[in-house]
Structures are given as C-alpha cells and as structure tokens.
Amino acid sequence: MPETSIEAVREHLETLYHAESGRILATLIRLLGDFDRAEDAMQDAFTAALEKWPQDGIPANPRAWLVSTGRNRAIDALRRRGRFDAAQDKLVQELEARSPEDPSEDHTGLYDDSLRLIFTCCHPALAQEARVALTLREVCGLKTEEIARAFLTTTPALAQRIVRAKAKIRDARIPYQVPSPEELPERLATVLQVVYLVFNEGYSASSGSSLTRADLSGEAIRLGRLLLELLPEPEVIGLLALMLLQESRRAARSTPEGELILLEAQDRSLWDREGIAEGIALVERSLRTQRFGPYTLQAAIAAVHAEAPDTAATDWPQIVALYTALYQMEPSPVVELNRAVAIAMRDGPESGVAHIDTILSRGDLTDYHLAHSVRADLLRRLGQHREAHESYTRALALTQQEPERRFLEKRLQQLDQKDHDE
C-alpha cells in the first residue's frame, strides 16, 4: 500500500472516529464481552493506526482493520497475563472460541451490534438514569461532560453513574444480546425513550456552540429503523415517523452561519419532502392500528405542520386537539406548554400567556428556558415590552446553547431599540 502523510492519516482517523467509533465499540464489546476492555481496545487500535497507516497506507476497509486490531491486541494482552494467571488464560480461550472468523463482519439488520448494545444499556436491572447515560456514552459516543450538562449534574457524579452501570452489567452477567420475542415488549418502552432522547440531543443540542448535531439524530433514526425491523409495533412506527418529520426541517432551522430560525420564519422549500412523505405514511400506518401512543400523537402534530404551506395556514385547531389528547395520555408541563403555544396561535397571544402563567404559577418549568422564551415572544407581540424584556432576560440566564443565547440577545436588543425609538 502507498505511504500516506501523517497529517492525512490523522485527519482521516479523526473523521473515522467521529463517524464510526460507536459501531466499532459496539462490535468490540460483543467480541470482548466487557465495556472497559473494549474501550481500551478501541483506543489501542486508533493509536496503532496512527503509527502504521503512514507507512502501510490506509486499508481498504478501515473499520474492519480497527476492529480486528483492537480485538487481537486485547486478546494478546490477556494472553500475556495468562502466563501467570490461569483465569486470564481461560478467558482468552473463551473469547477466541466465541469470536467469528471475521470479527469485522458488518452485522446489519436484526442483529446489528449497536442494537445489541442499546438493549444491554437499557436493561431493566439498571436504574433509568443509568440506562440513558450509558447509552449516550457507549452507543452515541457523547462525552461524559456533555451528558452531565444534559442531566444538569456534575461530570464526576455522571461518571460514577456510568461506572456503576458497567459494574452492574459485568457483575450481574447481563447478556450482550437482543432480547427474546417474549421479553421484547416490556424492554421496548425504555429503549424508545432512550432513542428519542438521543435524537433530541442531535435535533436540538442541550448545550454548546451548535444548534444541532446531525450525527446523533442520524444515529437515532438508524436505530429507529432497526427497531422497526425487529418489532413493528405502533409506537416504534410512531417514533420513527416523529424523528423523520422533525429531521425533515433541519436545513431550514438555522442560517449558514448557524443562527436559529423559528418555525414561522423558516423557508419551507428547504424542508425534506422525501422525509416528510415517509414520516406521514408511517403516522397513518400507526394510527390505523388504533393501538398508538404518545410518539404517534407527536408525529401526527409534526405531520400537520409538515402539510401546511405556512404558519398562517396551519390547522391550529387540529394541533390543539392533538395536544389535548397527548396531555390526557401523558400529562406533563412540557406538553402543556406546547399546547399553550398552539392555543396562542389559534386564539391569540393573550390566551397563550394566560396558560403559560398558570403553568409557571404552579412552580412547573420555572427553570426551563423555553417557557420564559415563549412567554416573552407572546408578550412582545402584545406590545408589553417591559414584561417581555424580563422574560427574555430570564430565558437568557437559563439557556446553555450558544445559538439560542445569540437569538435571545438579539430579541432584547430589538426591544431596547423599539423603546428608544418610541
């Protein structure tokens, strides 16, 4: 193979790590049977690639090379320890016996390694918070500090949560496999919740300089498709529909410079019509079963938006009705807030403000920046600039995302300019 400059190799590996490390790690966990051992093996493999590829050239199948190298190095390390520890030697024999001839084989469909990993991370033996944190860390590759910010906790506390979850999997000998058909339904709800949380982190990043992370939402949609293949239940269909419909707006949600664009101002010609068509077809398929749940109702709301040519022509009465049904099925302050926005669009800003004030007066969502941002926007439309300024300021203090911060600062500047002009 031809020599390649170390700069080119380094750049290629960075791209590969960003795009493929989740799948590589999932396969190594399957082959090595241990999270920590697999993580060490993956790091060893990337280090080896940086050493060898400049001289040997980049292999035809880099992911296969990394998986094979990581596995072989991990087993070699265990074999060296086995000279002095019979237990390690026995483990080597077990790993070699269970491994396929081609460890880099691309497992797709029902037995995708990522799918095995997500069911393991979402095992009922783990606490719910641990399931989500472990999936975001091991399946999606989020950094511990990123997950800690999403959970509003400290990085050391989140790291301990992940360590305890791994120890529980190891000590309880939780199998690294897709559950049996009999076990799948009860395991599915948690998995769907985790997949949607991953999608949301990609669709609207909880913090940082970027509004979205296409890699995360793309991974969540890929996992959603695999779940649908494995278990075509109405809520699996509904979740995939919801993700596709929301993802269809990605190109219109921000400027080329990364600035936030609200739904009402988006250029709808940029919406992905192919994704919308697939999403709507899935919504209709789930609704026909009459066994649908919250994901399908949320997808139905997204479908109403997708079918409207603009904000004014949107069927707001239907959206209010769907949010009412969703609230009855799954009451939460966030659903109530979204319903208040729809009511404001149907009946006017005053109605929306009244509903939001009711939510906030109960003490719900007082630290949720979107509640204050939405309230501020409705007050701005009503011409109540002082109250709007207070709510925008409160939202600005709570948001952790840079594009949202810039958007709110711009709104405050516009209010100040209006007051100055008047």
Automatic annotation (TrEMBL):
Chain ranges of the RNA polymerase sigma-70 region domain: 16-83
Domain annotation DUF6596: ranges: 187-286
Coiled coil: none
Domain RNA polymerase sigma factor 70 region 4 type: residue ranges: 118-169
Pfam families: DUF6596 (PF20239), Sigma70_r2 (PF04542), Sigma70_r4_2 (PF08281)
SUPFAM superfamilies for this protein: Sigma2 domain of RNA polymerase sigma factors, Sigma3 and sigma4 domains of RNA polymerase sigma factors, TPR-like
Gene3D superfamilies, sorted: 1.10.1740.10, Tetratricopeptide repeat domain, Winged helix-like DNA-binding domain superfamily/Winged helix DNA-binding domain
NCBIfam families xrefs: sigma70-ECF (TIGR02937)
Protein name: RNA polymerase sigma factor
Biological source species: Luteolibacter rhizosphaerae
